[in-house]
Amino acid sequence: SLADWLTQYYGESRITPREIFLGNGIRSLVWLTSLTFIDTGDPALLPGLGIPYYRKAVTAAGGIPVPYPLSIKNNWMPDFSKLSLRLRQAVRVCFVNYPHNPTGAELDEPTFQQLVERASRENMLLVNDACYHGIPSRKPLSIMAIDGGRKVGLELYSFSYLLGLSPIPFGFAVGHRHLIAALEAASQVLPPYIPKGFVDMAAQGLRQSPSKSLQGLRQQFASTAVAARKMLETIGIESVSPPTVPFLWARLPARRNSVTFARTMLKRYRILIAPGTSFGEIGQGFVRVSLTV
């Protein structure tokens, strides 16, 4: 079962079925989490550099999105120092995303522990979008493996990337049974549709994990990354991301404008890359190159 697999995967105390919620893709899980735990007017913390759907989900739930800074100077780790104490005390949900899209950054154990302690101290739900947890060959840290993390955290997963399956909108959340019960209650308004074929694919992926398809996916990203880095080097661009997500995060020389550079690459070389500002103003001077084919 998934609970047994997760228990072995985390290497911690047993995960029970009551601590797991099965749903659709990561985006749907983010939306459901927002609708469940955010009330009208509640501020919610989200990465100042990241995928736009956190902001959209918080706004749809009636909350107030509050971006927190991320910087290459501190390896893209969350920085709450510029947020007022009053604001932090009002926050009920904080979204993080590690391994991080678009930078590929990973949380180290001390930082993760600090986040868990802050969440516990300030009565805040810590939600980690762990969509790319299965991509690195070395297993990233999990909230569930941090002391106290199971009481204050939810972790959201995609079966596709975790197990190396075909892209399907099927994922799950792991957390304290009271948090999972709240998700289940909220989901009754619009229950997730999960075809039996998705369940069969995931069950087979769990039995075969780590499967040849996952190993092949990792090899594909690794070889594509080598080619992408060479391409970037020929035009004087430095890749600054580790091999943890299916993207390369690259810094432009002399802080060139991200949108202008991306347009030039498309027009001149027919190469499609994402400007860093697609993920927030912090991304100015960077671009993201996809490694998927």
Topology:
Blueprint: H1 2-10, E1 20-23, H2 26-37, E2 43-47, H3 53-60, E3 64-68, H4 85-90, E4 93-96, H5 109-121, E5 125-129, H6 149-152, E6 153-158, H7 159-163, E7 171-175, H8 177-187, H9 196-208, H10 212-234, E8 238-239, E9 247-251, H11 258-269, E10 274-275, E11 286-290
Parallel strand pairs: 2-3, 2-4, 4-5, 5-6
Antiparallel strand pairs: 1-7, 6-7, 8-9, 9-11, 10-11
Helix pairs in contact: 2-3, 2-8
Number of distinct beta strands: 11
What form results from the Cα inertia axes?
Answer: globular
Distance between the termini: 31 Å
Count every helix, treating DSSP H or I runs of 4 or more residues as helices.
11
What structural category characterises the helix and strand content? Answer: alpha/beta
Question: Into which percent range does the helicity of residues fall?
Answer: 25-40%
Strand/helix succession: HEHEHEHEHEHEHEHHHEEHEE
**Oligomer class:** single chain
Mean pLDDT over the residues: 92
Radius of gyration: 19 Å
Largest sheet: 7 strands, mixed
Uncertain runs with pLDDT below 50, 5 residues or more?
none
Sequence of strands across the biggest β-sheet? 1-7-6-5-4-2-3
- What percentage of the residues does DSSP assign to strands (E)? 15-25%
Question: Would you write up a description of this structure?
Answer:
There is one protein chain. The chain is an alpha/beta fold. Helix content is 40%, strand content 16%. The strands form two sheets. A seven-stranded mixed sheet has the order 1-7-6-5-4-2-3, sandwiched between helices. Helix 6 links the parallel strand 5 (125-129) and strand 6. The longest helix has 23 residues, at 212-234. The protein is globular and about 55 Å long.
